[in-house]
């Protein structure tokens, strides 16, 4: 998805890896559907049919990363699924939850969403434990700290609960999971880096990077962007700070880097929330023209 917006001379560009480098990774499930159509509400309140979307075929997880999917003796209507995203402040995960809930209703499956109000791995781990105690059959989740969450997820899997990771392409999670559904983060953000080179149009620019919290997601996204600008002698990364995936901390990190490096003319953010924080920082400092 590409969204462009101009405000107070600040150009904000969102390029999500879902559109530019999508793939679905499957564990024990079959291949993903080749095409899908969906109805969408149009601006005048009517309904229009979306164009068919093509999805990549599922591929096996790396050896040792896939748990065995169990066969349940329960009726479908007796099964329970918990969705546990990093935080409820992220609209993206609320949309995933809405899709899960809608499908659960169709299948007659029990569904609940548990999420910290803000991005807090410790609270998220407690919620995973709560879901296990409540007797769920499957947990659909995303974590920003795979190392911290692995022991809790391992205990859940050991009790026969299926674990599905979303919004990631991590090929080998620290503990076995059943499936991963996501997109190639490094590939997507390599294309973002290549776009940045084109946007610079040969001009010499200092670049700031807003990383996410330490972990796989940040490593892949930042690594992809750096790969995309590699070889562009006119672009020089002069600052790279942790924006902690949210707007407030992204704003503070962007403010710090812009004040410490007045020559920064381009900022890459590892997600859109930190990008919004960077826009606010640039506006507050009167730094028009930052890409």
Tell me about this structure:
- The chain has eight helices and 14 strands.
- With 291 residues, the chain is of the alpha/beta class.
- It folds into two domains: 2-17 and 185-284, Rossmann fold, CATH 3.40.50; 23-28 and 55-181, Rossmann fold.
- Strands 8-7-9-10-11 form a five-stranded parallel beta sheet, sandwiched between helices. Strands 13-12-14 form a three-stranded parallel beta sheet.
- It is elongated and about 65 Å long.
Break the fold down into its secondary structure elements and pairings.
Layout lengths: L1 E6 L2 E6 L1 H4 L14 E2 L2 E3 L5 E3 L3 E2 L25 E5 L6 H17 L2 E4 L7 H13 L4 E4 L4 H13 L3 E5 L12 E3 L3 H16 L4 E7 L4 H14 L5 E8 L4 H14 L3 E6 L2 H13 L7
Parallel strand pairs: 7-8, 7-9, 9-10, 10-11, 12-13, 12-14
Antiparallel strand pairs: 1-2, 3-6, 4-5
Helix pairs in contact: 3-4, 5-6, 7-8
Short description:
By secondary structure, the protein is an alpha/beta fold. It is built from 8 helices and 14 strands.
Taking pLDDT < 50 over at least 5 consecutive residues as the criterion, the unreliable ranges are 1-26, 29-46
Strand order of the largest sheet: 8-7-9-10-11
Major β-sheet annotation: 5 strands, parallel
Q: Provide the residue-averaged pLDDT.
A: 83
Task: Using the 3D structure, state the CATH architecture of the largest domain.
Answer: 3-Layer(aba) Sandwich
Under CATH, the topology of the largest domain can be stated as Rossmann fold
Q: In total, how many beta strands?
A: 14
Structure characteristics:
291 residues; alpha/beta; Rossmann fold; 2 domains; five-stranded parallel β-sheet; three-stranded parallel β-sheet; 14 strands
């Amino acid at each position: 998805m590409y969204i462009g917006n101009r405000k107070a001379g600040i150009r904000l560009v969102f390029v999500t890896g879902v559109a530019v480098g999508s793939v679905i990774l499957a564990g024990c499930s079959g291949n993903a559907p080749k095409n899908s159509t969906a109805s969408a509400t149009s601006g005048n309140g009517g309904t229009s049919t979306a164009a068919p979307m093509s999805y990549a075929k599922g591929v096996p997880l790396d050896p040792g990363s896939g748990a065995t999917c169990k066969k349940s003796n329960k009726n479908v209507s007796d099964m329970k699924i918990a969705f546990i995203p990093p935080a409820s402040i992220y609209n993206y995960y609320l949309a995933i939850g809405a899709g899960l809930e809608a499908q659960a209703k169709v299948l007659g499956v029990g569904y609940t969403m548990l999420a910290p109000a803000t991005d807090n791995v410790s609270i998220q781990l407690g919620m995973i434990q709560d879901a296990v105690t409540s007797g769920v059959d499957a947990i659909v989740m995303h974590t920003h700290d795979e190392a911290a969450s692995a022991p809790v997820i391992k205990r859940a899997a050991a009790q026969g609960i299926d674990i599905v990771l979303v919004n990631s392409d991590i090929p080998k999670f620290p503990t076995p999971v059943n499936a991963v559904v996501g997109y190639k983060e490094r590939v997507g953000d390599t294309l973002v880096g290549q776009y940045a080179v084109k946007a610079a149009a040969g001009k010499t620019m200092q670049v700031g990077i807003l990383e996410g919290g330490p972990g796989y997601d940040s490593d892949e996204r930042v690594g992809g962007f750096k790969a995309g600008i590699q070889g562009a002698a006119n672009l020089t990364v002069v600052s790279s700070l942790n924006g902690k995936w949210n707007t407030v901390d992204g704003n503070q990190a962007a403010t710090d880097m812009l004040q410490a490096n007045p020559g920064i003319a381009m900022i890459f953010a590892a997600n859109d929330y930190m990008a919004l924080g960077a826009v606010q920082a640039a506006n507050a400092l009167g730094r028009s023209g930052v890409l």
